[in-house]
Amino acid sequence: MLAGLGGPSLGRNAANPVAGLAGIDLGTNVHCSEHICKRDRTLNRNQMGSLIRSDLYRYCGRMDWRAALYAFCRIPGFRFTFFLRKTSYHCERSGFFHRAAFWISKLILNHYQFKYGFQIPYTTKLGRGLYIGHHGSVIVNSGAVLGDNVNLSPGVVIGQANRGKRAGLPVIGNRVWIGSNAVIVGAVSIGDDAVIGPGAYVSFDVPGKAVLIGNPAQIKSYAGSEHYVCNIAPESDLMNCGVVSGAGKTVSE
Fold first, then answer.
1. Structural domain harbouring 142
2. What is the pTM of this model?
3. What's the order of all strands across the beta sheet hosting 125-126?
4. Distance CA 192, CA 31 (A)
5. Which of 89, 106, 129, 239 has minimal CB crowding within 10 Å?
6. C-alpha distances out from residue 216 to 8, 213, 248, Å
7. Is there a domain that residue 210 lies in?
8. Confidence (pLDDT) at 169
């Protein structure tokens, strides 16, 4: 039951005056094709199951079937992420079964995307233990990288800058908490255990454990994200889960 990754992004040419004024690209239309989906096929079925169990643990603090049933039926963030993982998993593989499973998963993912407002492409590099809190718009560019145990709140935008010194896409570290309506844009690195406060606009590199607030964002302390990022799955339960970390490497490395 527990296995996959997916979801389309905002079109590059979508009418968005805010993105146009700021030089921010919120995403590009992505279609599953041999060109896009021929990525490293390193995750087997068991490893993909470990990825989804790590997501489940973030919500429930458990990985048993009762927790899975509860989260799947009652928690929108987990349900969306489940089909996000599945879509990505089947997209990376060839054969009739995987093609059929991909399109079914993608249709379901699209339904939940419009229902909940989560716009995270299935091609995005996501670490384990992703937590999406509550309904509401969450936009992540397909080229961004999110590390392990990242918290996303309603209204978060992680986008691309198309010009200037910071042209490019963000790389989010591990155990990063991102508050409501925060915007992270451009080729910036967010260090491990950082806290991005609600409404913060971040366009610069953030050191580990920094706490940022304001627009433009300012570092207020180095208290870190402890007690903000909870229910991190034990390493012993996820030893075979080779997934992308905030540094762009796999856990197994």
1. 17-29+43-228
2. 0.77
3. 125-126, 145-146, 171-172, 189-190
4. 32
5. 239
6. 29, 8, 27
7. yes
8. 95
Stronger pLDDT, 27 or 126, i.e. the higher one: 126
* CATH number of the domain where residue 131 is located: 2.160.10.10
Structure tokens given for 208: 């580990």
CA dist., res. 152 & res. 211, Å (int): 15
Distance between CA atoms of 92 and 87, rounded to whole angstroms?
9
Where does the chain show beta strands of DSSP type E? 24-25, 118-119, 125-126, 131-132, 138-140, 145-146, 151-152, 157-161, 171-172, 177-178, 183-185, 189-190, 195-196, 201-202, 211-213, 218-221
Number of H helices and number of E strands within the chain? 6, 16
User: How many domains is the chain built from?
Assistant: 1
- 181's CB contacts (< 8 A; 6+ apart) are 153, 154, 155, 156, 198, 199
Q: Is residue 156 part of a domain?
A: yes
Q: What is the mean pLDDT of residues 158-167?
A: 92
Question: Mind giving me the DSSP string for 9-60?
Answer: ---TTS--HHHHHHTEE--------HHHH-S-----HHHHHHHHHHHHHHHH
pLDDT at 238: 56
* 6 lies in some domain: no
Q: Are 113 and 8 in contact (CB under 8 A)?
A: yes
Cβ atoms of 53 and 233 within 8 Å: the answer is yes
pLDDT score, position 3: 40
Six-digit token string for 143 = 């080229």
CA angle 176, 178, 179 (to 5 degrees): 150
Centre a 10 Å sphere on the Cβ of residue 98 and count the other Cβ atoms it contains. 15
What is the distance, to the nearest Å, from the Cα of residue 15 to the centroid of all Cα atoms in its chain? 24
pLDDT score at 218: 94
